[in-house]
Design brief:
This protein is mostly beta strands and 149 residues long. It is 8% helix and 42% strand. The strands form 3 sheets. Strands 1, 2, 3, 4, 6, 9 and 11 form a 7-stranded mixed β-sheet that branches. It has a 3-stranded antiparallel β-sheet with strand order 8-7-10, with no helix packed on it. A two-stranded antiparallel ribbon has the order 5-12. The protein is globular, with a radius of gyration of 15 Å. 29% of the residues are buried. The mean pLDDT is 87.
């Protein structure tokens, strides 16, 4: 199943968006997380989201070539990443997982992770978190032994 169809089927079974606007990434201003890393939160609990729910958050990430998300983990949220464009790696603990368009990776709560774009191209992916991501649930961490810093 193509990632965008999987995402739509997941959202259809998870959310009741009656009376709420359908999220459109083009209409959302990006949040600059760090140099070369930005996100647009489409669904969740933060004030900038179009569709509000505490059951799930969906954010569209864009990583410039060679850039990476910070090492972190969620205390209670399970995260899934669906790659739309580009190639890179998702580090789960000290294990790298090569990703490309269509790749889907799930990271359990409490496990440190980082997403990295390849050196030659940008990486675009959806991050889905259940329950919805909050800053209080996200913990910055150090890279595990053997992983890139």
């Amino acid at each position: 199943m193509k990632p965008q169809f999987f995402l739509l089927s997941l959202l259809a079974t998870t959310l009741d968006v009656q009376g709420q606007d359908a999220p459109n990434a083009d209409a959302i201003s990006p949040v600059i997380v760090s140099p070369g890393v930005e996100l647009k939160e489409l669904i969740g609990v933060t004030p900038s989201t179009v569709t509000k729910t505490d059951r799930l958050s969906v954010a569209l990430f864009h990583l410039e070539p060679g850039r990476a998300s910070a090492w972190s983990y969620t205390k209670t949220g399970e995260e899934s990443f669906v790659v739309l464009k580009g190639h890179g790696e998702v580090w789960v603990g000290s294990h790298p997982h090569p990703v490309r368009p269509g790749s889907f990776i799930t990271v359990p709560a409490g496990v440190v992770r980082s997403v990295r774009a390849g050196k030659a191209e940008a990486l675009d992916f959806y991050a889905l978190t259940t329950p919805a991501w909050t800053s209080a649930d996200d913990v910055l961490a150090t890279a595990p032994d053997g992983a890139p810093r």
